[in-house]
Amino acid sequence: MKKIMLLTIATLSLLTACESMEDTYKEYAGDGPIRYPGRCTDVTVSPGWECLRVAWTLSNDPAVKNIVVTCASENDTLVTELEPTATSCQIDNLEDINYVVKVQSKADDGSMSLAEGVTERPYSYEHEAVKAFTLGFSRAYLGN
Prior knowledge:
With 144 residues, the protein is α+β, with helices and mostly antiparallel strands.
């Protein structure tokens, strides 16, 4: 009798656990799965004189209509939209502060790809003055 009862409980629990993935998507994501455009990979940011040079590798997603490069600092945010075939750009006239650069793909419907920020600081007169500062001594002696 115990075996029949356990078998019945196991069968009922299996039948109630079968739910389609589409129902789960509709429940949590609205109309179905969220589709992000293909992201730009291998993003590199190199400093220049009061500028930053940004390069990336494109995705093979045909839905991409623009590439958006965002350069954000604590003072300002610069947004540049480029052609979908662009693989590099240069951001000029920057101050001597840290910038976070993100490269994203933008689709027809306005959705943006995921992106990771790369932090870099451009070269400037203030930057060079700090690097040229000497410590004030050239040798150190350990005394007894």
